[in-house]
């Protein structure tokens, strides 16, 4: 009894605290947990299950309340709407929306095939699989990382290791570009930074810059990372700018370090930080670092425990030092149903593309939170 | 014999039509004569459901279910958006065939919301119904209060006529039979109903309706997640033929209760901090109590000093009812009730009209919830001009009410003439305006507790229905949910559009009495002992008489029904090459059968025939081909199995080593 009430107190304390630290917070419970949250339009996201059996892909319409700036009080609509849904036989570890289409491409994390889905239109709420891209891969059992092409015909860049990175046209399945270099390092993150230039981050932390117009040119930037440490990458791109300094790359290690560099020189860290995190999971599966699209110098880190941490990199230095987060979202550890704070692990998070402090995050218990934290600097004055 | 399950909502008058029914006579897969599966008699019954839904509009619920020849009305709601006849369901399609009392076997009300019970006095006292009306104890207690409250507003304030009177409400309530949770109530010899906990509001129930082996479950409004004062809906694995579920929220994933509450507290807190007043118009019972518990719980922790008032004469009554029906609340309230009544608040005090003019911050809960009359409207008029103040609307407001207008962002309100006249007469000069500036902050918050997509799945998992019927939704937007339900539970899911008829084939198990003699005879024939889990073939005659099914021996059936037995014989010719004389061939057949069919009565008769039980075998041949023998076999219908066996055996020819004698 006493134990319960102390947990309940912690729960209530956070609840009271949340009045002050969030402008808005919405908590949803999916039937099955997701490890993907992908924007499919300004107001819709895709989530999907990752169980070994049958899974669902859902396209959700965000509540109206999040999009009404005037008279927000008059809008009571705070629920997600399932606008489209479909069934997948396999697990969904990776899901990417192809810009300008109603198409998403998924991979199950265990083989190299890419599933292509049509999200459906107004007249039907069913998501249908429209094709499979059967691909050869050297280490397919680790699954494939996907990056949607940003310009031209719908295409996807994909690979399971650096050597098998390939650009494939979606409609024909025709390969448009392949790297063809024998670098067996496993791929952890892949992203276009312009119409043809892409960044690839290997699990060992090495960064590669490739250009789909130039199959032979691949620039390697070894991280000199420690053995046994897993790395992933978050990239901030400004497609309107050709200035290489505007493209910031943050690499997150399983040892909870973040190294930031930019396209001018990916070898030398601009600044870095040791994060103060007590890992609650030994798996590196959910590690994620992302740049805020509408907030300068801010990045979000998750995947080590039940929290999402926001850091302001403005104060970071070239030397490795420990820095405190600007904001911590603890919501996933304060579940309504079970007060078990130890098992909660955040599976993924994404930023709202235009609202500076709005983040969506998901956890292993199936919870999905949409939160908008209060900026202490502006709130106090 | 023919049974049907029919559902129909008595909704928009234009949509009212008689449900098409498919009365089917029972058809058995196997004829009795050729042996039927005893434990697996199939009976085809068509069920048609006719529904006209209200979409996402908060309309009224009124569904008619016909099951096994019984007609049951589920809910009798009032449409709050209309001020004329359209607010009540149109019963004329029933009444043009006779009185409601003759047509309906009973009426069941799921909960006390007026869109589910508001037309009850109209139906029973003005249209005329004298049969039983079932509702739970809390609904029975609260329903008349809300009806009277609404009647006062409509008749006394708005001056409407052609509305039910106080006496009618009283007379109507006399027809109510209270329901207890999980108690099976026998409406008549065949019709029984049972209530299950639905969450949603105090006393809300789901109801199972059963006639014979057929059943329908109607959910009403339900909630699968417990809240601060109520528990979650629950039902046992009752496997109804049809589960009729509300699906207004079927495609939503609900934001958590906690975030809704957080928003509410945040708004109240902000307003009080800046010295403003908060008005919360509420229904007297339900959401009000929940929000009171919420404020009470956090007022001290948030270090709040501002007074909270509950402004209604119904406070005591409301608390009285919650105390009375403590078993209907959630576990936490029930548990703490022993030490402290959760509804006796430390921080929340009774309101007096004069307090509204007091300076400084305060929070007031006032009725009615839609701001269409009464105390909440009076307070609103006083506070509306100050932008520091706030009004929080915790529920839906129907068109035409002040609540509805301000939720639509209307900043200048023209008061209804009649209302204004009354107000001018009643109020001191200066506090009333013909038009009112709305400067205070308006917040709309929905606290309604309905099941979302996940909740519907949970309920299906619990009840395991054979068919699912989603009402009040938009079919085009629920194709995925339908697929999901059909795949996950391998059942059919129907989403009838307005005016659409759905036919559901059900396979109820039909009990058949079997005569002891027949059973004994079957036992005597050997084989394994009867196992209820394994179907077994047996012979008998099915008699359908006096609403019962009996399987008896053919002899008994003939005797009972006074019929003569018809003899049915099968004959068959088998050609055989056997270079012997006809009598020798017959002898050889006799010897052969004697060796093959041990334990059967086989006779070689002097008239030149061989008889195996009732089967007669003769041999003939033509003069041209003396070696081509034609065997004539003839047997009675009763020995069909043996006869078929013999003809097959003899077609294979006779073994060569047979002696002729």
From TrEMBL, chain A:
InterPro entries: WD40/YVTN_repeat-like_dom_sf, WD40_repeat_dom_sf, WD40_rpt, Wdr73. Gene3D superfamilies: YVTN repeat-like/Quinoprotein amine dehydrogenase. One of its GO terms (biological process) is cytoplasmic microtubule organization. The keyword Translocase does not apply. PROSITE patterns: WD_REPEATS_2. The keyword Ion transport does not apply. Keywords: WD repeat. GO terms for cellular component: cytosol; spindle pole. This is WD repeat domain 73. It comes from Oncorhynchus kisutch (Coho salmon).
From TrEMBL, chain B:
One of its GO terms (molecular function) is metal ion binding. This is Integrator complex subunit 11. The lineage of its organism: Eukaryota, Metazoa, Chordata, Craniata, Vertebrata. Residues 288-406 form the Beta-Casp domain. Residues 59-276 form the Metallo-beta-lactamase domain. It comes from Oncorhynchus kisutch (Coho salmon). The keyword 4Fe-4S does not apply. One of its GO terms (cellular component) is nucleus. Its cofactor is Zn(2+). Keywords: Cytoplasm, Hydrolase, Metal-binding, Nucleus, Zinc. Signal peptide: none annotated. GO terms for biological process: snRNA processing. The keyword Zinc applies. InterPro entries: Beta_Casp, INTS11-like_MBL-fold, IntS11_C, MBL, Metallo-B-lactamas, RibonucZ/Hydroxyglut_hydro, RMMBL. Belongs to the metallo-beta-lactamase superfamily. RNA-metabolizing metallo-beta-lactamase-like family. INTS11 subfamily. It is found in: Cytoplasm; Nucleus.
């Amino acid at each position: 009894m006493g134990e319960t009430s102390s947990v309940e107190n912690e729960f209530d304390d956070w609840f009271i605290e949340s009045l002050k630290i969030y402008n808005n917070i919405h908590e949803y419970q999916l039937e099955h947990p997701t490890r993907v949250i992908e924007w499919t339009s300004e107001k819709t996201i895709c989530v999907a299950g990752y169980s070994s059996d049958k899974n669902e892909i859902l396209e959700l319409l965000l509540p109206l309340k999040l999009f009404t700036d005037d008279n927000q009080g008059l809008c009571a609509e705070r629920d997600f709407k399932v606008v489209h849904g479909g069934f997948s036989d396999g697990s969904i570890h990776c899901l990417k929306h192809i810009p300008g289409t109603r198409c998403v491409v998924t991979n199950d994390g265990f083989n190299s095939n890419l599933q292509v889905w049509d999200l459906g239109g107004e007249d039907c709420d069913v998501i249908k699989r429209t094709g499979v891209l059967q691909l050869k891969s050297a280490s397919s059992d680790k699954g494939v990382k996907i990056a949607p092409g940003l310009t031209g015909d719908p295409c996807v860049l994909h690979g399971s290791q650096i050597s098998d990175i390939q650009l494939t046209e979606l409609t024909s399945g025709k390969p448009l570009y392949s790297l063809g270099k024998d670098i067996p390092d496993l791929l952890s993150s892949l992203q276009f930074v312009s119409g043809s230039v892409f960044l690839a981050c290997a699990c060992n932390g090495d960064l590669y810059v490739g250009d789909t117009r130039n199959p032979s040119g691949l620039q390697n930037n070894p991280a000199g990372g420690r053995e046994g440490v897993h790395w992933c990458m978050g990239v901030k791109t400004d497609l309107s700018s050709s200035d290489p300094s505007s493209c910031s790359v943050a690499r997150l290690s399983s040892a909870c370090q973040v190294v930031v560099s930019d396209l001018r020189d990916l070898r030398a860290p601009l600044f870095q930080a040791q994060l103060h995190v007590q890992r609650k999971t030994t798996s590196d599966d959910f590690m994620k670092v992302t740049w805020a699209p509408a907030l300068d110098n801010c990045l979000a880190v998750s995947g080590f425990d039940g929290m999402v941490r926001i850091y302001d990199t403005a104060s970071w230095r070239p030397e490795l030092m420990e820095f405190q987060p600007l904001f911590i979202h603890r919501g996933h550890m304060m579940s309504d149903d079970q007060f078990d704070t130890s098992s909660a692990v955040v599976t993924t998070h994404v930023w709202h593309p235009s609202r500076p402090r709005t983040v969506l995050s998901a956890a292993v218990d199936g919870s999905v939170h949409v939160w908008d934290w209060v900026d202490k600097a502006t709130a106090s004055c | 014999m023919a049974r049907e399950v029919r559902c129909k909502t008595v909704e928009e008058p234009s949509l009212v039509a008689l449900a098409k029914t498919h009365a089917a006579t029972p058809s058995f897969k196997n004829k009795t004569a050729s042996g039927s599966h005893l434990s697996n008699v199939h009976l085809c019954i068509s069920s048609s459901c006719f529904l006209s839904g209200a979409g996402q509009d908060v309309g009224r619920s009124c569904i008619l279910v016909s099951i096994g020849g019984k007609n049951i009305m589920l809910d009798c709601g009032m449409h709050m958006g209309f001020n004329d006849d359209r607010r009540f369901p149109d019963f004329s399609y029933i009444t043009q065939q006779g009185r409601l009392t003759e047509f309906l076997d009973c009426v069941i009300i799921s909960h006390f919301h007026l869109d589910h019970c508001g037309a009850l006095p109209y139906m029973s006292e003005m249209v005329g119904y004298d049969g039983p009306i079932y509702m739970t104890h809390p609904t029975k207690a609260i329903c008349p209060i809300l009806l009277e409250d609404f009647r006062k507003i409509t008749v006394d304030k708005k001056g409407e006529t052609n509305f039910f009177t106080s006496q009618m409400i009283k007379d109507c309530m006399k027809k109510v039979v209270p329901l207890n949770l999980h108690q099976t109530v026998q409406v008549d010899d065949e019709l029984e109903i049972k209530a299950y906990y639905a969450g949603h509001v105090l006393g809300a129930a789901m109801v199972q309706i059963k006639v014979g082996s057929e059943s329908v479950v109607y959910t009403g409004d339900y909630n699968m997640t417990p809240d601060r004062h109520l528990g979650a809906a629950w039902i046992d694995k009752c496997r109804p033929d049809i589960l009729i579920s509300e699906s207004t929220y079927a495609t939503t994933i609900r934001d958590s209760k906690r975030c809704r509450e957080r928003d509410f507290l945040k708004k109240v807190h902000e307003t009080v901090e800046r010295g403003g007043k908060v008005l919360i118009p509420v229904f007297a019972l339900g959401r009000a109590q929940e929000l009171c518990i919420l404020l009470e719980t956090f007022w001290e922790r948030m270090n709040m000093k501002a007074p909270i008032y509950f402004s209604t004469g119904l406070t005591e009554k409301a608390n009285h009812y919650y105390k009375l029906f403590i078993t209907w609340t959630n576990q936490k309230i029930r548990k703490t009730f022993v030490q402290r009544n959760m509804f006796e608040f430390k921080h929340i005090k009774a309101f007096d009209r004069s307090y509204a003019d007091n300076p400084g911050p305060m929070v007031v809960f006032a009725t009615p919830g839609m701001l269409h009359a009464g105390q909440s409207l009076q307070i609103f008029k006083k506070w509306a001009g100050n932008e520091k103040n706030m009004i929080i609307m915790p529920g839906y407001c129907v068109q035409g009410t002040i609540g509805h207008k301000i939720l639509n962002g209307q900043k200048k309100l023209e008061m209804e003439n009649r209302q204004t006249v009354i107000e001018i007469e009643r109020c001191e000069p200066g506090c009333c305006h013909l038009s009112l500036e709305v400067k205070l902050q308006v917040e709309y918050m929905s606290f309604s507790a309905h099941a979302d997509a996940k909740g519907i799945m949970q309920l299906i998992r619990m009840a395991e229905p054979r068919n699912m019927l989603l009402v009040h939704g938009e079919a085009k937007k629920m194709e995925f949910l339908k697929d999901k339900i059909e795949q996950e539970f391998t059942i059919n899911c129907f989403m009838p559009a307005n005016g659409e008829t759905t036919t559901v084939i059900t396979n109820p198990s039909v009990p058949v009495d079997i005569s002891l003699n027949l059973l004994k005879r079957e036992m005597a024939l050997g084989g394994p002992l009867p196992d209820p889990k394994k179907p077994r073939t047996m012979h008998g005659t099915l008699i359908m008489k006096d609403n019962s099914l009996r399987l008896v021996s053919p002899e008994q059936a003939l005797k009972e029904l006074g019929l003569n037995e018809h003899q049915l014989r099968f004959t068959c010719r088998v050609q055989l090459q056997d270079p012997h004389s006809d009598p020798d061939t017959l002898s050889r057949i006799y010897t052969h059968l004697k060796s093959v069919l041990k334990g059967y009565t086989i006779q070689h008769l002097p008239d030149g025939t061989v008889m195996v039980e009732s089967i007669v075998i003769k041999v003939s041949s033509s003069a041209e081909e003396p070696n081509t023998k034609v065997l004539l076999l003839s047997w009675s219908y009763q020995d069909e199995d043996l006869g078929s066996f013999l003809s097959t055996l003899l077609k294979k020819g006779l073994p060569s080593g047979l002696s002729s004698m």
